[in-house]
Write a structure and sequence with these properties.
The chain has a single domain, classed as Integrin alpha, N-terminal (Methylamine Dehydrogenase, Chain H). By secondary structure, it is mainly β. The protein starts with a strand and ends in a 23-residue tail after the last strand. It has 1 helix and 30 strands. Helices cover 2% and strands 43% of the residues. Strand 4 and strand 5 form a beta hairpin. The longest helix is centred in the last third of the chain and has 7 residues. Keywords: Signal. InterPro entries: FG-GAP (IPR013517), Integrin_alpha_N (IPR028994). It holds the Pfam family FG-GAP_3.
């Protein structure tokens, strides 16, 4: 099943209450490149900490522990041995000890993956390397969820680009996994992003992936044993290159929708879910300020009960670095119907803005932003200071399976 029709929205509405963020706080990592980062409570104090994957001079995972005021203090660094590059981090409790662990995809002498197991203090032991081999992929990514309904966390990750495939590791609940199961994608394009959710309300987790070259979202509806049906596909538009994807309810109908960043077409696309695993035609919102968005985060930033989007773009990071141009994060205010109106930009204080996380870092029930810089090796935190915005009743309408904060 392929759907190719796209409706487009490009409009701005000025609210009497303007969203604001405070001055940026900048934090140095142990490396010269931030590759990816995630937020979670690693030490059980109720605050969202940050785990940052770094490359270049130091290939490591840095863990920054949060203070109650939204700043970050102590940093712990965990080196990744025999690795040229750390590519992706995914957080979950893989051994059922009620402490968050970190799954790490690494490239190096042995392209593989490993897990840092955490304890109650947020301290991690030496990385345990898993018996998997990961070939080079254009857009490495992974995600964790319970795919076979046994109460244990499983992992999905990009496996190879030639031919394109994903792999599933079914967890035993003690930090070990069954032999990987390969999901072939084909030769005409490969995976750019992965999301997991129950799209057809059968209490089984499904997988959504974005594909390059053929430019579509593929939906793999899941069975209870961790296997999946033949994919349904929905076009994201020719040359869209959808490098970022997430899941939430964007029109408040109780069904999960899919949002993609169509980097090649300078828009954000939303597929409204029907609740049975099918989706409507893509609704697109053109990007006004930054021309394109490569990574985004979802949150209700102004507290109106409608999901908004914060996006960053990285394609011209090297140009901005050489010219010392400022970098920004763009917030797209949601209308609650799958489209977005007012677009506002906020300075990040970084040499490049490549990764973004939305979270409430200071406990004031307002959604804040953390930005990671690939070229600068730093990250910045922007606290939401909008006093006229309503406070969030809950953190989000839907919490992604890859958000364990």
């Amino acid at each position: 099943m392929t759907t190719s029709t796209t409706s487009t929205t490009s409009t701005s509405t000025v609210s009497t209450c303007q969203l604001t963020f405070g001055p940026t706080d900048i934090y140095a990592t142990s490396g010269s490149h931030v590759q990816q980062f995630v937020a979670s409570d690693f030490n059980g104090d109720g605050l969202s900490d940050l785990a940052v994957g770094t490359n270049a001079f130091s290939t490591a995972t840095d863990v920054f522990f949060a203070n109650e005021n939204g700043t970050f203090g102590r940093r712990m660094t965990y080196a990744v041995v025999d690795a040229n590059a750390l590519e992706w981090l995914t957080v979950a409790d893989f051994n059922n000890d009620d402490h968050q662990d970190i799954f790490v995809m690494i490239y190096g002498e042995n392209n593989s993956a490993g897990i840092l197991f955490g304890n109650s203090s947020g301290i991690f032991g030496a990385m345990i390397i898993l018996p998997v081999v990961i070939s080079y992929v254009n857009s490495p990514c992974s995600i964790a969820s319970d795919l076979n309904s046994d109460g244990h966390i499983d992992i999905v990750f990009t496996k190879s680009s030639t031919p394109c495939s994903m792999a599933i590791l079914l967890g035993y609940g003690n930090g070990t996994f069954a032999a990987e199961k390969i999901i072939p994608i084909g030769n005409d394009g490969c995976v750019l992003a992965i999301a997991i959710a129950d799209f057809n309300n059968d209490d089984h987790q499904d997988i959504a992936v974005t594909i390059d070259i053929d430019f579509y979202v593929a939906i793999l509806l899941g069975y209870s044993n961790g296997s999946f049906k033949t994919p349904m596909t929905f076009s994201t538009g020719i040359y869209s290159f959808s490098y970022s994807m997430d899941v939430n309810d964007f029109n408040s109908d109780g069904y999960l929708d899919i949002i993609v960043a169509n980097q090649g077409n300078y828009n954000i696309g939303v597929f409204l879910g029907m609740g049975d695993g099918s989706f409507g035609t893509q609704i697109t919102t053109m990007i006004e300020h930054t021309n394109l968005v490569s990574q985004f985060a979802i949150g209700d930033f102004n507290g109106d009960g409608k999901m908004d989007v914060a996006g960053v773009w990285d394609v011209w990071s090297s140009v901005r670095l050489l010219s010392s141009s400022p970098t920004f994060v763009t917030v797209f205010v949601g209308y609650g119907n799958g489209s977005f109106g007012q677009q506002m930009i906020f300075p990040t204080g970084l040499a490049s803005a490549d990764y973004v996380i939305a979270n409430d870092f200071n406990g004031d029930h307002r959604r804040d932003l953390a930005i990671g810089s690939f070229f600068g090796g730093n990250m910045s935190v922007l606290l939401n200071t909008c006093t006229c915005c309503a406070l969030e009743v809950s953190s989000q309408a839907y919490v992604s399976t890859n958000d364990f904060s």
